Amino acid sequence: MNEAPAWQAFERELLPRIAKNFPLEASLMGAEGLAELAASSAANAARYGFSLGRHVAQYVQLALALGCGFDCDPLLPWASIILRSRSAKDADTKMAALNAAALAYVEAVAGWNGRRYRAAILRMRNLGYGHFPALGRDSSKALIAHLRSLFPEKAAYTADSLPVFADLAARSAQRFGLVEGPPFAVYASLLFLLGNGFADDPQFAWAGKALSSKRGAGPERIARDLVESGQAWIARVLAVSGRG
Length: 244
Prior knowledge:
Strand content: under 5%
Low-confidence stretches: none
Distance between the termini: 39 Å
Helix content: 55-70%
Order of helices and strands: HHHHHHHHHHHH
Radius of gyration: 18 Å
């Protein structure tokens, strides 16, 4: 699907439709970011057997709503189960099940009009770097308690998966050297709020930039930049949505 020229023709139809359905995200990402997310999501969709345009479009929208790595997110185990299921009769059945589960999740976690999610990112914005707990790779209970205070609705809905998430956070944080103390807490908090793969998600290019541009600066400097960049992004979210 994402091979030229067929992809280019499909993309010209897809991107305006996605921007209409997700105006906030499209505005924050810009045209280049939206195109990048659409292309990577289309490639992922193909790996799960989605080749029709309508299925690809729906997969891209799921990536926007849940994060580009939603298919491997331990907090969304239903996504992996549905996508890898061999019992679904066809792609339509699989996508319908995926959309139904995603809708139930978003309604329970983000709340009407995203109010619970906004409350969570406001808590994140109001946390100065010095207020993040000093966590280590073996502090899963303390990490889970911190996440519950940050986004209680998501923590409650995903309670059974939180220990697995804590393990993932500890492993993936090693990629950036943020393995302990407040730097690890900052990284794990963003992973929890923004979704699996946030460091490579075009929706959160600011995070990828902070994590990759100062590799030699040390974990505290990187984590402080993440906090500052995240606070600036949250301010933009609120401004663009008219809730600043």
